Amino acid sequence: MVTLTVNNKRHNLDIPDDMPLLWTLRDVLSMTGTKFGCGAGLCGACTVQLDGQPTRSCITPVSAAAGKTITTIEAIGSTAAGKRIQAVWLALDVPQCGYCQSGQIMSASALLAAKLNPSDSDIDDAMAGNICRCGTYPRVRAGIKKAASATTTADVSEPSNRTEA
Asked: Which of 37, 7, 38, 43 is nearest to 25 (CA)?
């Protein structure tokens, strides 16, 4: 029996201790916002926060998450940093296909929660493990900078000027 606290809700689960947190979230708890990408912790699509720290859930056994606060993309908007990041992502049309974006948002919101005004180097370090096959890195950086300069979500809700071909 493993007890996990996910998005402020306690779950007592009869699962193996070595089951990856990703599969627990997706298959056991039906929380499909966290994505499977590589299965080796290299791409960042599976990123969640454990006690506020970005963590690759595909290589994290549930036993390592027990006793910690797990936050997923489904609840990151309830945090101040997460709410600003999500608002900016929409306002600036940061995603293209969107598959990697839950992981991007989880890493970016952890960065902003830790550093109110991150430098380019801070952004590079925090986002280094999040791969975007569509190459939205300039929009991710712009989004983080915009969210860092905003004090409320109203400060970031400008309409996008991006057009689709």
From this structure: 7
